[in-house]
Write a structure and sequence with these properties.
This protein is 65% helix and 0% strand. By secondary structure, the protein is mainly α. It has one domain. The longest helix has 30 residues. The two termini are 17 Å apart. 28% of the residues are buried.
C-alpha cells in the first residue's frame, strides 16, 4: 500500500470533519427550540452536545491537515468514527426519534429531506469506519505490528 492512499483518505476525512464541525457549531449558536431539549442518549442539552462534538471535530480536522503522524491520524479518525457508530447504535437501541440530528439544524437549509441527509451521514460514517480500519489493518500487515514510533508521511496533509 502506498502512502498516497493514506494521504488522500486523511485529506478527505479532514474535509468531512471540518464541514460537519462547522454545521454543528453553527447549529449550536442558533435559537431553535430543539437545541434546549435533552439529547436522548447523553441527557445533555442538544446545544451543548453539538458544540462539544463540533469542537472535537474541528480540532481533529486541524490535526489531520497539519500533523505528519500518519499512524495517529488514521487511529484518531477510526476512533472518532467508532464513537459516532456507538452513538448511533445507542440512539437506535433507545428507539429515539429519527432521523439523527447529527448536523444540527443546518440541515433545514438544505434542499434535501432529513431522511436523505441521514442516509448521506450513514454513508459518510461507513466511509470513515471502513477506510480507517482498512488502512490501519493494511499498515499493521505491512509492518507486522503497530509501529513503535508512529510513521510519518512526507506531505503535510
Amino acid at each position: 500500500m502506498k502512502d498516497k492512499h493514506i494521504k488522500y483518505y486523511v485529506i478527505s476525512a479532514g474535509v468531512i470533519f471540518a464541514i460537519t464541525a462547522a454545521a454543528k457549531l453553527v447549529s449550536a449558536m442558533g435559537d431553535a427550540r430543539i437545541l434546549n431539549h435533552a439529547d436522548p442518549l447523553l441527557g445533555l442539552k442538544t446545544r451543548h452536545v453539538l458544540a462539544g462534538v463540533g469542537a472535537v471535530e474541528a480540532a481533529l480536522a486541524a490535526f489531520l491537515f497539519f500533523s505528519r503522524n500518519a499512524w495517529l491520524k488514521l487511529s484518531l479518525t477510526a476512533w472518532m468514527a467508532t464513537n459516532f457508530l456507538v452513538y448511533r447504535l445507542g440512539i437506535w437501541w433507545l428507539d429515539a426519534p429519527k432521523p439523527c440530528g447529527c448536523l444540527g439544524t443546518v440541515t433545514d437549509a438544505l434542499p434535501l429531506s432529513p431522511r436523505m441527509v441521514d442516509y448521506g451521514m450513514k454513508g459518510i460514517l461507513a466511509y470513515l469506519l471502513i477506510g480507517g480500519f482498512t488502512l490501519i489493518g493494511l499498515q499493521l500487515k505491512k509492518n507486522g505490528s503497530a509501529p513503535q514510533r508512529p510513521a510519518e508521511t512526507n506531505a503535510p496533509a
